[in-house]
Design goal:
The protein has about 260 residues and is of the alpha/beta class. It has 2 domains: about 140 residues, Rossmann fold (3-Layer(aba) Sandwich), CATH 3.40.50; about 60 residues, Arc Repressor Mutant, subunit A (Orthogonal Bundle). The protein has 12 helices and 7 strands. A hairpin with a 2-residue loop joins strand 6 and strand 7.
């Protein structure tokens, strides 16, 4: 049987979907349900379902980030959205990230069953059979890479934006992974693959870039600047600054000052 998960913050919809769909007809079974996105992503990592039907307009949930995270981490997973969020541009972006169907509430049973049929057909086309996962052929691997590329780029961009907004506090890979709805391990892999840098290197480059701006203000002490951009240890700031720019923070400030005098 294919494994399916339903995620919706309205319990009545979760119960209705569980009871009304003839899951056996699609060779599927519900392995778990959830009422919010955080719980849902935890369940998905635990059960690794083949099929997900989920709302994306739930409190505290960035729906597109959740979709991108799931499609990047589990490229063969089939996702259909069932939501009251009526936004054509949003729907298009979700489909580009790999969503199979975008259904608006209230959807008819025919629409839901058509979505189920499409997801099962996609799994079959990728040679993913119930209770067994076979090696994909080359054409399907290429399709998966295209979907993974779009979703992964979306995640990496969101991760870097989050780092740029939150570099000043003690930021961890775990925090950024949580905000982008993927595991630490997968985020680390994506950052390395798409930027050529690990999390610490990206964070340090962003912090030093901000420090460069602050060094233009002669009223700020270098020790204060180090703290303002997120370094607790002044010695660590000095090492990182010199490693990235090839000069000390003090020398950099002097260079800026001399250029301004000229």
């Amino acid at each position: 049987m294919y494994k399916a998960v339903i995620i919706d913050d309205e319990p009545i919809i979760v119960e209705g979907m569980t009871r009304m769909i003839q899951w056996e007809k699609f060779n599927c079974q519900i392995v778990a349900t959830a009422n919010d996105g955080v719980e849902g992503t935890d369940i998905i990592r635990s059960f690794e379902p083949n099929i997900i039907i989920s709302d994306i307009a739930m409190p505290g949930l960035d729906g597109l980030s959740m979709v991108a995270g799931l499609k990047s981490e589990f490229p063969n997973i089939e996702i259909s959205i069932l939501t009251g969020y009526r936004d054509f541009d949003f729907a298009q972006r979700a489909i580009r990230l790999g969503v199979t169907r975008y259904l608006l509430k209230p959807s008819s049973m025919d629409e839901i069953e058509e979505a189920m049929t499409a997801m099962v057909q996609n799994l079959t086309a990728k040679n993913i059979l119930p209770e067994a996962i076979k090696t994909l052929d080359l054409s399907n691997e290429q399709d998966d890479l295209k979907t993974d590329s779009a979703a992964s780029s979306f995640i990496v961009n969101n991760a870097i934006k989050y780092i740029e907004k939150n570099y000043a506090h003690k930021l961890t890979l775990s925090e950024v992974a949580e905000k982008t709805y993927i595991s630490q391990w997968h985020l680390s892999k994506l950052l390395n693959r798409q930027t050529g840098q690990n999390f610490s290197e990206i964070l340090n480059h962003i912090r030093i870039k901000e420090a460069q701006k602050l060094l233009k203000d002669p009223s700020l002490r270098i020790g204060d600047i180090a703290e303002m951009v997120g370094f607790i240890d002044m010695a660590h700031f000095s090492r990182v600054f010199k490693k990235i720019l090839g000069t000390s923070a003090n020398e950099y400030r002097n260079t800026i000052s001399s250029k301004e005098i000229k």
